[in-house]
Every structure is written in C-alpha cells, then in structure tokens.
Write a structure and sequence with these properties.
By secondary structure, the protein is an alpha/beta fold. Helix content is 42%, strand content 13%. The protein has 6 helices and 5 strands; from the N terminus they run βαββααβααβα. It has a 5-stranded parallel β-sheet with strand order 2-3-1-4-5, sandwiched between helices. Helix 1 (12-25) packs across helix 6 and helix 2 (62-72) packs across helix 5. The protein starts with a strand and ends with a helix.
Length: 171
C-alpha cells in the first residue's frame, strides 16, 4: 500500500496516478483509491482497517484526518496510542507513506489555486493553513512518514519523484 498525503493543490492525485502507472508497468498491479471527507460516523481507528490493501495507491488516508481535523476542529483526531496502533497495522500491510508539502508561506498553493479553475473542497486560506498543520504533523510523526517532499519551485513537480518513490515502496 502506497499512501500519498498532503494538503489540497500539492499534486497528490497526479503523483498517485503516476505511481499506479509505474507500478503496473513494473509488473506490480496496483489500483488508485481516494479517501475524501469522512462521514461523522466513520470510526477514527478501526474504520481504516477495511481500506488497507496491499496493492492500492491511496490518495489521502489517516494523516489527512489529523491535519484537517486539527485545523477545522470538526473531527475527533487520533490520540498518540491510536496513531501507534494504526501505524502498526499499516506496517503489517507493508504500507509506505509519502507526504507532499508546500512551503508554509503558501505562495505555491495560491499560485496553483489561481491557475486551477476548478473547485476544491476548501477555500485557499484554509488550504494554506492546513499545509502548516501538515508541517507540524511531519515534525510530530516523522517516524511514520517514509519520505516527504516540499515543493522547490522547479518544473516537473511532483512527477519527477515517481520512480524514486516506486523504487522505495515494498510492492
């Protein structure tokens, strides 16, 4: 299982689809899955278990719940013990977690927002603030994140990381 995390507008979906193509090309059949806003009734710990599949490239997962829940204060976030338990289950599945970030100043995100021309789940100010929460999560949960990339202003973002990420996964 390959998990791609990060705020809106950083290229998660693009990278996830490219990783699926690359894994399939290498003979490791994978499918794309996206976890959107969770229902209020979603079990914050056990609800993830049936979603864990070895041959999935997952666009958003448990870290998204933490980031958006902390920022919008509308979700019961995971405790440290629940996070450790959930992470243990992910490791047993061979999960590999990638975190995509933008610089905390939000310049890249605002540029993406202006160029997109399509609706996102949240307004740009909220996305910029959630990006800052992801930076905090990276500091807190670094052992649970296998690799992280921050936008560097160069072209090819995030596509140029596809082969590197696929090389590091455990398909």
């Amino acid at each position: 299982m390959l998990i791609i995390e990060g705020p809106d507008l950083v290229g998660k979906t693009t990278l996830a689809h490219e990783c699926v193509r690359e894994l399939n090309k290498r003979g490791f059949p994978h499918v794309y899955a996206h976890l959107s806003k969770l229902a209020a009734s979603f079990d914050k710990v056990h609800g993830y278990i049936p979603l864990m599949h070895r041959h999935v490239v997952q666009d958003r997962f448990h870290l998204s719940r933490l980031a958006y829940g902390r920022h919008f204060k509308n979700q019961d976030v995971l405790t440290d013990n629940e996070m450790r338990w959930l992470q243990a289950k992910l490791w047993l599945q061979g999960a590999f977690t990638v975190l995509l970030l933008a610089k905390p100043d939000g310049v890249f995100l605002r540029k993406q927002w202006a160029e997109r021309g399509r609706a996102e789940m949240y307004e740009i100010d909220g996305i910029v603030e959630v990006n800052k929460v992801y930076h905090q999560l990276y500091e807190e949960y670094q052992p649970y994140i296998d690799c992280a990339y921050q936008f560097d202003g160069k072209s090819g973002w995030p596509s140029r990381y596809t082969e590197t990420i696929v090389d590091q996964t455990r398909p």
